Amino acid sequence: MRLFAFLVSCLWLVGCEASSSTNNQQVLQNLIERSAHTVAIGQNMVRFSYLCDTHRVKEMDQVFTPNCFINLPDKGFQNLHGVDQFIKNFPKYANYNFQHVTSPPVVDLDDSMTTAHATTLVIATVFDSFNTSKARPEEVEYGSYITDHVLTKAGWRIQNMTVSTFGEWDS
């Protein structure tokens, strides 16, 4: 449905453009390129959540720049400089299972299409792995990932990540 709406918007823009067909093609090409970057940034946020949920943190170089800044509310994850610090601190969660549910990000792409700012809503659930017979959450947090992305040769990577929390679910 989103793709259909996107294509209709593209056709409308091309049809409404009063200038030359070359300009129409440039407008359409720019719109398609911006949309592709937005999707790639969203995919990067999904990959971050997936790697956390599956405890595959050694693959975080697919998500972050090496010199990234990460500031999460949990102890041990505040004001981290570099993806290596994030990976080093992650084992404290080795006995817990996670589930991240994220929204599509709101992306502000700069004109050069090489840097972007994004906000992604998140519900993060931590399960008690010592009682795997029940899928009862031990903790649920609500918030936003506020991220700055840069386009590298390997694709979009997160340069800065801060989490803004709305609060916790109390059972």
Helical residues, percent: 25-40%
Number of alpha- plus pi-helical segments: 3
Overall pLDDT level:
82
CATH topology: Nuclear Transport Factor 2, Chain: A
Q: Per the principal axes of the C-alpha atoms, what is the gross shape? A: elongated
Query: What's the CATH architecture?
Result: Roll
Low-confidence stretches: none
Rg, nearest Å: 19 Å
Can you count the beta strands? 7
The CATH class: Alpha Beta
| Tally of individual domains | 1
Class inferred from helices and paired strands: alpha+beta
Distance N to C terminus: 36 Å
| Percentage beta strand | 35-45%
Structure explained in plain terms:
The protein is an alpha+beta fold and 171 residues long. The protein has one domain: Nuclear Transport Factor 2, Chain: A. Strands 1, 2, 3, 4, 5, 6 and 7 form a 7-stranded mixed β-sheet that branches.
In short:
The protein has 171 residues and is an alpha+beta fold. It is built from three helices and seven strands, in the order ααββαβββββ.
What descriptive keywords fit this protein?
single chain, 171 residues, alpha+beta, Nuclear Transport Factor 2, Chain: A, seven-stranded mixed sheet, 3 helices, 32% helix
Walk me through the topology:
Layout: H1 2-16, H2 21-53, E1 64-71, E2 80-81, H3 83-89, E3 96-102, E4 106-109, E5 115-128, E6 137-152, E7 155-168
Parallel strand pairs: 1-7
Antiparallel strand pairs: 1-2, 3-5, 4-5, 5-6, 6-7
Helix pairs in contact: 1-2
Domain SnoaL-like: 37-162
Pfam family, one: SnoaL_4
Keywords: Signal
